[in-house]
Amino acid sequence: MKGYALITGASSGFGEAIAHSLANEGYSLILAARRTERLESLKEKLSHLPIHIELITVDVREEQAVIAAITSLPENVKDRIEILVNNAGLAVGRGPIDQGISDDWNRMIDTNIKGLLYVTKAVVPYLKKQTHGHIVNIASIAGKEVYAGGNVYCASKHAVDALSRSMRIDLVSYGIKVTNIAPGAAETEFSLVRFKGDQDTAASVYEGYEPLQAQDIADSVLFAVTRPAHVNISDITIMPTAQASASILHKES
Ligand code: NDP
Ligand code: 8X3
What are the Cα distances from residue 204, in Å, to 51, 175, 190? Predict the structure, then answer.
C-alpha cells in the first residue's frame, strides 16, 4: 500500500495536475496552498479514488504556520509521507533590476526559497523514517539560465536548483531521493500572477506556439517517482518544442 505525497501549491497549475497523477497512481495526498476552497474542490474531484486526502491551508512563507500544519497532521498520516513535492512558487513582475519593486522581490524570495526550505525542514524527519523517501523540487529553466527582466525570479530558481543538489548530498545516507524538475514555458496561472492580473499580457506569453501544459510536468513527476528503488532521476529539464532556451521561443506570427 502506497503512503502519502505532500504537494505544495496544489490549488492550481502544476500542483493540481501532480495531485491527479499521484492519486491515480495510488498515493494518498496531503494538499497544501492558501486557497482552501480550491483544495476542497480538488479533494472532491478525487473522491472516487480509494485514497485518503488531507488538506493544509498554509502560506509557505510563514515558518511557524508551516511547522504547525505539518505537526498537527494525524500520526498515521505524517508517519507515512513518502513524497514531498515542493511546487508552491511564483514570479511577480518582470523588468530591469533598477526598476524592481522590493515587495515583489520579497514575495519571490520568501516563497520560492524560504518557503521551500521551511516545508522541507518540517517534512524531512518523516521522510527519514521511510525506506524510500523522495523530494521533488519544481525549479525552472530560469534556474538554469537567466533572461532579460527575469533577475530575481531567475535568482530564486537558481537557488532551488542549488538546494536540490545540496539536499541530494545531505540526504543520501537516508536513502532519500531528490529530483529537480526545470520546466520552460507552461500555460498555468503563472503569468496571470506574474503580471498581477493583467489577462492580456499573461495570454500573450503563450501566443504563437504550443506551450507546455500542467499535465506535461505531472507526467515528469510521475516518471521520477515511479523509478525502481535504486534509480534516482536527478534532474529533468522540459521545454515546449518551440522553446530552445530560456529566452528563445519560436513564435508563429
Ligand atoms: P500557478 O500560479 O498556477 O500555481 C502556483 C501555486 O503555488 C498555487 O497553487 C498557489 O496556491 C501556490 N502558492 C503560491 N504562493 C504560495 C504561498 N505563499 N504559500 C502556499 N502556496 C503558494 O503556477 P504554476 O503551476 O505554473 O507554478 C508552480 C511552480 O512551477 C512554481 O514554483 C513556478 O515558479 C514553477 N514554474 C512554472 C512555470 C510556468 O511556466 N508555468 C515554468 C517553470 C517553473 P495559492 O495561491 O492558493 O496559495
Ligand atoms: C517559469 C518559466 O521562462 O517564465 O519558471 O521563467 S519562465
Answer: 39, 43, 13
